[in-house]
Design a protein that fits this description.
Largest sheet: 8 strands, mixed
CATH architecture of the largest domain: 3-Layer(aba) Sandwich
Number of helices: 12
Structural class: alpha/beta
Number of domains: 2
Number of strands: 17
Helix content: 25-40%
CATH topology of the largest domain: Alkaline Phosphatase, subunit A
């Protein structure tokens, strides 16, 4: 019946649908993780805002991901006893990925901040000015001390299997308040952040419309930041006519198939791409901010990322993710002093971001999450060919205990939850798993993690798997 009209693929190639082509390619790239045959009828959902299970404390999430694994004993978990055991064998030791030796005290000074008097390392001095708005969790632990699986676990809830990312689950459960922008945006300067790349913000078996939109924030011009954002071949009115025809072709195809979730996700992506051409350019244009605000954040990559993040949540974007950079920048096996360099990239922008949210009345509605995939050992990593240069000033991966912090969005400010042992090796009090963290984040957003499910492969899947408990101690 339709042999006289071009195929959908040919139609898109011939019309040059602007940003829609990029949106389609992203969804098609995910098809190895989300086959159309695997989608249930649940995929026929819109990205329109949905009602949570109960009254939420937060409406938006901004995740600051320190890929590589920052050291807890050099940032937010001061261990004075390490000074005494510096260069000496510790009485307590846990299995590490590589061989480690004697105790290694932090080269950075700690001091108390705010009315709460919580100790923070000097490398986050500006961030620590807001300690009374922050909740430090010092008792995190995860499954394995290896970057790819730990990054998958932190972002997707499972260290091995392909699962939807946390942002995709949140978008699936709540939708987004702005239909002219993606509801989930992931920013990483310099390229993909790790081996699994798009899986960290992918939707896996959830509808493709729930995946994150990746942006390479090493670019500043909107045409580079978002490729194909403008179509210089046809006008908006012509694109609208093309989109109407595309809708008709899609709808005719949908009549002949069942549970075509991937196709429906594509339809949504083209609608969104068309609308984005008018609103996205303005949302990402930080030159519209006052000089004072731009200087407050700083003219750096992470300063731009967090200023963009604020502009996005102002416009109703549900989940914004900001990575440190390509690869594993916080992974300092040879010289922990490099933590000072990496912290300096974030310290001023984070402080500005929190202050800016507060002055605009956005902090109460916005949950900020800071942390990496695991922590680092309080013992020095021993020289090993191919691993380090033998400087003897670095730390190995540590999944037994590490720190993250939360701010805004209904968490207790000026509060510390849990503790590691006296050397900072293992979480021993108020232990929090990644599943517990995810359950707590969903709870703050008004979602019951046991009820946020998607039927796939005969099972009711969820972000937290069959585990996870809400950590009520961190909730205000």
């Amino acid at each position: 019946m339709y042999r006289s009209v071009p195929s959908r693929r040919q139609f898109l190639q011939q019309t040059g649908a602007g940003f829609g082509a990029l949106a389609l390619s992203a969804i098609m790239a995910e098809q190895g993780l989300a086959s159309p045959d695997d989608h249930s009828s649940q995929t026929r959902s819109s990205l329109a805002a949905k009602q949570p299970h109960f009254a939420p404390k937060a409406k938006h999430v901004v995740q600051l991901f320190m890929n590589g694994g920052p050291s807890q004993v050099d940032t937010f978990d001061h261990k004075p006893l390490l000074d005494k055991f510096d260069g000496k064998t510790l009485p307590t030791h846990y299995k590490t990925e590589r061989k480690t030796g004697v105790g290694y005290k932090s080269p950075f000074k700690f001091k108390k901040y705010g009315e709460s008097g919580i100790e923070v390392s000097e490398i986050f001095d500006k961030t620590a000015q807001h300690i009374d708005d922050m909740c430090i969790i010092r008792s995190m632990h995860c499954a394995v001390p290896n970057h790819p699986p730990s990054q998958l676990e932190f972002n997707c809830g499972d260290p091995i299997q392909s699962r939807p990312s946390m942002g995709s689950w949140i978008l699936y459960g709540l939708g987004t308040e702005n239909q002219n922008l993606p509801g989930f945006i992931s920013m990483c300067p310099g390229g993909l952040p790790g081996r699994h790349g798009p899986r960290y913000w992918g939707s896996s078996f959830l509808p493709g419309s729930n995946q994150g939109q990746y942006l390479n924030t090493q670019f500043t011009k909107i045409e580079k930041l978002i490729e194909n954002i403008r179509n210089d071949k046809v006008s908006f009115s012509q694109q609208e006519q093309q989109l109407d025809l595309l809708h008709k072709l899609h709808q005719e195809h949908l009549k002949r198939v069942q549970d075509e979730g991937a196709l429906e996700a594509r339809i949504e992506s083209f609608d969104l791409a068309y609308r984005m051409q008018t609103e996205a350019a303005e949302a990402f244009d930080i030159s519209k901010e006052s000089k004072h605000i731009q200087e407050m954040y700083g003219e750096t990559t992470h300063g731009r990322q967090l200023l963009i993040a604020r502009r996005l949540i102002e416009r109703g974007v549900r989940f914004v993710q900001a990575w440190t950079g390509k690869g594993i920048p916080w992974d300092h096996h040879d010289d922990i002093m490099l933590h000072k360099r990496d912290a300096a990239l974030w310290d001023k922008p984070i402080a500005a971001f929190i202050a800016d949210l507060k002055q605009r009345g956005l902090l109460n509605d916005t949950l900020i999450i800071w942390g990496g995939e695991f922590g680092r050992t309080p013992t020095v990593e021993l020289p090993a060919p191919g691993t380090n240069k033998g400087l003897g000033r670095g730390r190995d991966h540590n999944n037994h205990g590490f720190s993250i912090w939360l701010a805004g969005g209904g968490v207790k400010g000026g509060h510390v939850h849990g503790a590691t042992d006296e050397f900072g090796f293992k979480a021993i009090e108020g232990r929090v798993s990644i599943n517990d963290l995810h359950a707590t984040i969903l709870h703050l957003l008004g979602l019951d993690h046991t009820r946020l499910t998607f039927h796939y492969s005969g099972l009711d899947m969820r972000l937290t798997g069959v585990k996870g408990n809400v950590v009520h101690d961190v909730i205000a």
